[in-house]
Amino acid sequence: MADSGSVREDSRIVIEDDWPGYSLDLFTYPEHYCGDIESVYIPHGIIMDRTERLARNIMDDLGDHDIVVLCVLKGGYKFCADLVEFIKGLSRNSSKSLLMRVDFIRLKSYLNDQSTEDLHILGGEDLSVLSGKNVLIVEAIVDTGKTMKALLEHVETFRPKMVKVAGLLVKRVPNGLGTPPDYVGFEIPNRFVVGYALDYNEYFRDLNHICVISEAAKIKYKV
Ligand code: HPA
Ligand code: MG
């Protein structure tokens, strides 16, 4: 992870606290979520364009290495898939060719819209493949940083050569834990967002845009 001093001010899109999102009338979304979402916070197209740029930054930095992409499930599956596609596209049109393996780890720490104390690592691949490798952890959202810290400690036990982190979203939270990801898509306010594989109790992963859910939906899908 980069120390905060080496993260450039312009290295992320900052969404301010007073950003209300776009009106739902301006976009399409699945009809079954009618009444469940309040606004379109980040439209799918902007997510894709930003991801393409992150792919280029990653190519510039890691282009001639072999890397193991470690996709953090479940929320990271869309970001990871799109990021890998963009990197592949850039590799095809470049003298650099980035050999990628893609592995998965499954974590769970949220119930309803609250982070729970315990992080569960729910299996996935045998991570001994990370030993001696350049690892790119791909995570949809970093908020308190607790999950990322625990994950980094876990990954380090497999003695990788290098670890970088790509986070699509980073939340501005009070007392956030230390180091930001090396590659950040968007910095967002401390609000609960869904869509683009981010869930609320497993719902809303099938929404392309990143959205804010309504209070009614928080009750409707509560467990
Ligand atoms: N949305 C969905 N999942 C999450 C969030 C969020 O805002 N923060 C951490 N996990
Ligand atoms: Mg979740």
UniProtKB/TrEMBL annotation:
This is Hypoxanthine phosphoribosyltransferase. PANTHER family: HYPOXANTHINE-GUANINE PHOSPHORIBOSYLTRANSFERASE, PHOSPHORIBOSYLTRANSFERASE DOMAIN-CONTAINING PROTEIN 1. Coiled coil: none annotated. NCBIfam families: HGPRTase. It comes from Paramormyrops kingsleyae. Its EC number is 2.4.2.8. One of its GO terms (cellular component) is cytosol. The keyword Metal-binding applies. Pathway: Purine metabolism; IMP biosynthesis via salvage pathway; IMP from hypoxanthine: step 1/1. Belongs to the purine/pyrimidine phosphoribosyltransferase family. It holds the Pfam family Pribosyltran. Keywords: Cytoplasm, Glycosyltransferase, Magnesium, Metal-binding, Nucleotide-binding, Purine salvage, Transferase. InterPro entries: HGPRT (IPR050408), Hxn_phspho_trans (IPR005904), PRTase-like (IPR029057), PRTase_dom (IPR000836). Residues 46-200 form the Phosphoribosyltransferase domain. It comes from the Eukaryota. It catalyses: IMP + diphosphate = hypoxanthine + 5-phospho-alpha-D-ribose 1-diphosphate. One of its GO terms (biological process) is hypoxanthine metabolic process. Its cofactor is Mg(2+). GO terms for molecular function: hypoxanthine phosphoribosyltransferase activity; magnesium ion binding; nucleotide binding.
